[in-house]
Amino acid sequence: MSQTETTLIIGVFIALVIGLRIWRASREQRIKVATIWLVPLIFLALTAWIVYTDGLTQPLDIVLIALAIVLGGAMGMYQGTHTTVRIDRQARLLYVKVRPLGVAIFVVVIALRLFIRLPAAFSAAQNAALTHAPQALPRGDTLSLISVLLLGVALGAVAGLRLYLLRKFQESDAQPENG
């Protein structure tokens, strides 16, 4: 199989996964208030692991990643304004339906990260095939930083949306129930 065919197959697979994600995210989702921070914490752990394994531990790298997370948080809060939220206070549940614009923000950021890292992965695989020795992805380079910054934006967006949803829930707690 040629590199072009491999790239095409991976591209189609990524497009299918992104399409499935958009379709699923556009449907109403149930979120428990008690576990609202579980997904962002898992995403944070994954991001921290990628930052470490990509060798992005210089102070400037960390500052840029923190700024990307803050930017993503603002984007997530904005995404919340394009989200339909139903609240079940007694069951402490949120029913969330994200509009396509909100999903598109997240999907574009993740897709950009994939398309930035994919060529480096192909290059490492090609070198490994030529030299018959395993090749690691580049560490600490500009492409690694850009891809991790995009991941930071996505992390911030997830956390920002959860913060928006939690605020909506708390606002509903402050309002008396109509009876």
Structural description of this entry:
With 179 residues, this protein is mainly alpha-helical. The chain has one domain. The protein has five helices and three strands; from the N terminus they run H-E-H-H-E-E-H-H. Strand 2 and strand 3 (93-98) form a beta hairpin. Helix 1 (3-25) runs antiparallel to helix 4, helix 3 runs antiparallel to helix 4 (100-131) and helix 3 (59-81) crosses helix 5 (142-174). It starts with a helix and ends in a 5-residue tail after the last helix.
Give descriptors for this structure.
179 residues; 5 helices; mainly alpha; 3-stranded antiparallel beta sheet; single chain
Q: Roughly what is the average pLDDT, rounded to an integer? A: 81
Shape: globular
Rg (CA only): 19 Å
Instruction: Detail the poorly predicted runs.
Output: none
**Distance from first to last alpha carbon:** 67 Å
Q: Treating each run of at least 4 consecutive H or I residues as one helix, how many helices?
A: 5
Number of domains: 1
Query: Order of strands side by side in the largest beta sheet?
Result: 1-3-2
* Oligomeric assembly: single chain
| DSSP strand tally | 3
Structural class: mainly alpha
> What is the percent of helical residues?
over 70%
Sheet bearing the most strands, described? 3 strands, antiparallel
